[in-house]
Structures are given as structure tokens and as C-alpha cells.
Design brief:
The chain is mostly helical. The protein contains eleven helices and no strands. The longest helix is centred in the first third of the chain and has 26 residues, at 11-36.
Length: 158
């Protein structure tokens, strides 16, 4: 292309090639950054392509879309995030509910614990979340629950 730049070079073709290359570089860098970032431990499994996520185009109230996005993007008030801003070491971001009410202080308060494990929310979990997810919980099941195509179940979390 560069060697023959003065002979009938179509600018639309050049722009398309440039756009594709820029997108490819962005995706590669973002995936690499997500792989190396602890904050993206769950999110990297939720996004398999870089497009508008399924739940955002579904006819559900904005409040629920916002709630789902906050959970998926780790933009919430769990200690795993708020402790990071207060320079509390990761292993010290223990769930205050379990520590206070139940005397347990071994689980870090992050999405997996909050949604599928925390004893304080057992009754709500049983009422709103399908048993498959909370019986024998795993991070894999949490990823399934938070997946973009699982709008019906994820709405119950909000």
C-alpha cells in the first residue's frame, strides 16, 4: 500500500484498514490488561467480544441495567473495592456481615461471597436466586449467573 501510494489509492480502503488495525490493537491491549488485573477477575470471563452487551438492549428498567452493570464492572460498595481506595490490603477486606453477626472472618467481601456465600443473605438468596447457583457455589456458577444472556436470573440479584 505504501509503496504504491500515488497510484489510485482509495482513501475509504485505507480508512477501513486503519480502523480495523486500531480496533485490533485496542482489543489485544484490553484483554492483556484484564488478564493481569486482579480487579477484572470475574469480568474477563463475562466479556467475550467488544460490543454492546445483551442485557443493555433488553426492555428492562434503567435502574436494573445500572445495577447489573455495577455488579459486572465491580463498581459497587463491597469492601473488595472500597478497601482498595482506602489502601486496605486485599486479605484484610473481610466481609463485615459475617465477621460481626456470625463470628466468621475468613471470607473476603467480593461479588462471589456477597452473591453466593454470605450467611446474612441466605434467605434472600434462596428466595430470588435459582438453587443451582447457590447450592455448591463456585466462581464458574457466578460467571454463568452474571453472563449477559442470563437477564432473567441476573435481574433477581438487583
Amino acid at each position: 500500500m505504501w509503496l504504491d501510494q500515488y497510484n489510485n489509492l482509495d482513501s475509504r480502503v485505507c480508512l477501513r484498514i486503519l480502523e480495523e488495525r486500531l480496533k485490533s490493537n485496542f482489543v489485544q491491549k484490553t484483554l492483556c490488561d484484564m488478564e493481569n488485573e486482579k480487579k477484572c477477575d470475574i469480568y474477563k470471563f463475562l466479556v467475550d467480544n467488544f460490543c454492546l452487551q445483551y442485557y443493555l438492549v433488553k426492555p428492562i428498567p434503567k435502574l436494573y441495567k445500572k445495577c447489573i452493570s455495577k455488579i459486572r464492572l465491580s463498581s459497587h460498595n463491597l469492601l473488595i473495592e472500597t478497601g482498595r481506595h482506602k489502601n486496605i490490603s486485599r486479605d484484610q477486606r473481610i466481609c463485615p456481615m459475617c465477621k460481626l453477626q456470625f463470628g466468621q472472618n475468613t471470607d473476603i467481601e467480593y461479588k462471589y461471597h456477597y452473591i453466593l456465600i454470605c450467611l446474612k443473605y441466605t434467605d434472600l438468596r434462596k428466595k430470588f436466586i435459582t438453587k443451582y447457583y447457590w447450592s455448591n457455589p463456585s466462581v464458574y456458577k457466578l460467571v454463568q449467573l452474571l453472563s449477559a444472556n442470563n437477564v432473567k436470573d441476573i435481574l433477581k440479584i438487583c
